[in-house]
Task: structure prediction
Amino acid sequence: MPELPEVDALKDFLADRLVGREIVRVLPVAISVLKTYDPPVSALEGREVTAVRRFGKFLDIDADGLHLVTHLARAGWLHWRDTLPDGPPRPGKGPLALRVALETGEGFDLTEAGTQKRLAVYVVADPEQIPGVARLGPDPLADDFDEERFAGLLRGERRQLKGALRDQSLIAGVGNAYSDEILHAAKMSPFKLASSLTPQETSRLYEALRVTLAEAVERSHGLAAGRLKSEKKSGLRVHGRAGEACPVCGDIIREVSFSDSALQYCPTCQTGGKPLADRRMSRLLK
Result:
């Protein structure tokens, strides 16, 4: 799933190619991707793109006051085309969900792999009309997101750190992968209660949050859209690396599986050398 660093890089990538250009066609191929119907996508046609912004994991293309907003979800992606194919795309079982064409002949496709269709596209006068945008918490890389504000968010938070970091209404933009990376950098268990943090631990987690995301953003910026996925994967230390050696201490990275996701962590760095209980795997072994 694209998270804050990748969406931020896509924002800059698109801004360089879209701002000042006219949208001539918006072609929904998978109708299910459209989550709004008034105004229709055709209302974007003939408008000039004036800005591209990011709200958490949402990507916002401002076409002279009308916004095309997308959330790429778990398996969605954006593909830039220097030259779009001739003729309209054919609806079918392929991954193509929506195509946007510019007056220059350039444009981009939104695609979604797999069978779980969660890619979402909205056309709205104001991004705040989208429930997912309206409920977003603060951006963790914003200038005013200081340690005091972070501590206030965690104070009284009875959830485990892994869940708290992924909650978009608490902090915007962090997902499964970067929450693993942040907790590894902070040397904290994903199952530790957020409300149990000491001031020193809160400071360490805040630093890990800011540095991990800032470094990922720096690695991603300037890359073409097609290279962002591989860059994200190459920069991850623990997420998706179960069974490999921890790059910090050399211990074997472990995994805890859930019904639709998994987390990875280093026992030596994060849990005092003790493996976390993986109840799903334990049930499978019985």
Remarks:
- Residues 281-286 have pLDDT under 50 and may be disordered.
- The CA atoms of residues 136 and 168 lie 5 Å apart.
- The chain is about 30% helix and 20% strand.
- The radius of gyration is 20 Å.
